[in-house]
Write a structure and sequence with these properties.
alpha/beta; Rossmann fold; 8 helices; globular
């Protein structure tokens, strides 16, 4: 199926949401049935999150991706295989606050986001201070942000944004994560783009934050 056909079909899938009101109704009904809520921003094809969801049927997963031809892959597979503990939001991840009530997310994964190096785009970076403050409100107490990048400047920028931001504690920092990957759990599984970065010799950096 070509890109145009994917764009046409993606928003007709029953597990894909393009506006917050419809998503909230389904999310509020579902979340009480699951132990945890796990969200990935900029989830791409959704293959990594799908595996995480399959391995943890007791948890509810939400993928957010703005590119319809990418999110189609994960949403189509989940629908076809009747994987019912994952939902897909086809929208800009910067609108996450419109979709989730406060203190409803246990884990927020940000994996290899666009670095947006230009100064004028600073506030649109997924780890800008204004975004971290928004995530703080959405996370449950002790909720976590798991951030991975292969861009040293973005990693440095993120650390700078955390200065004087008292709501988070850095519980893990690894600037050569690909050399210290665990054997089990979601951190042991590289994303599609992470595999490419490692194959090209780029080092992966990991930062895990926990809400106080």
């Amino acid at each position: 199926m070509g890109k145009i056909e994917k764009y046409k079909e993606v928003d007709t899938l029953p597990n894909v949401f393009t506006e917050s009101e419809g998503f909230r109704k389904v999310f509020d009904n579902l979340r009480a049935r699951f132990n945890r809520v796990i969200v990935e921003l900029g989830s791409g094809h959704g293959d990594w999150l799908l595996k995480y969801a399959l391995d943890n049927p007791q948890d509810l997963f939400v993928a957010i991706e703005i590119k319809g031809d990418r999110i189609w892959h994960g949403a189509k597979e989940a629908h076809t295989k009747q994987i019912n503990n994952i939902l897909f939001i086809h929208d800009d991840a910067l609108r996450i606050e419109e979709y989730f009530p406060p203190e409803t997310i246990d884990e927020l994964w940000i994996q290899f986001p666009e670095p947006l190096p230009k100064k004028k785009h600073e506030k649109r970076r997924f780890t800008a201070r204004n975004r971290l403050e928004a995530y703080y409100n959405l996370l449950k107490p002790k909720g976590k942000i798991i951030f991975k990048t292969d861009e040293p400047q973005l990693f440095k920028f993120t650390l700078e944004q955390l200065k004087d931001l008292s709501g988070f504690q850095v519980i893990h920092r690894d600037e050569r994560f690909d050399l210290h990957r665990p054997n089990t759990g979601p951190l042991s599984v590289p994303t599609y783009y992470e595999k490419q970065h490692i194959d090209h010799g780029r080092e992966v950096m990991l930062l895990i934050l926990q809400k106080h």
